[in-house]
């Protein structure tokens, strides 16, 4: 049981890291999009 639980936690952490990386990239994209919008309005 203990081994199975640790494996589950490890896979959960991997998913979390992947998700965090994806959201970080998405935030970067929206940030650059906002900068482009501001420069286009001038």
> How large is the radius of gyration?
18 Å
Contiguous uncertain segments of 5+ residues: none
Specify the biggest β-sheet: none
Task: Tell me, rounded to a whole number, the average pLDDT.
Answer: 86
Share of β-strand residues: under 5%
Instruction: Specify the structural class.
Output: mainly alpha
What is the share of helical residues? over 70%
**End-to-end span in angstroms?**
62 Å
Number of helices: 1
Global outline: rod-shaped
Following the backbone from N to C, one meets helices and strands in this order, namely H
Find the count of extended strands (DSSP E, 2+ residues): 0
In short, what is this structure?
The chain has one helix and no strands.
Note down, in words, how this protein is organized.
The chain has 42 residues and is mainly alpha-helical. 95% of the residues lie in helices and 0% in strands. The chain contains one helix and no strands. The chain has one helix at 2-41. The longest helix has 40 residues, at 2-41. It starts with a helix and ends with a helix. The model has no long low-confidence stretch (mean pLDDT 86).
List keywords for this structure.
42 residues; 1 helix; mainly alpha
What's the helix and strand layout?
Elements: H1 2-41
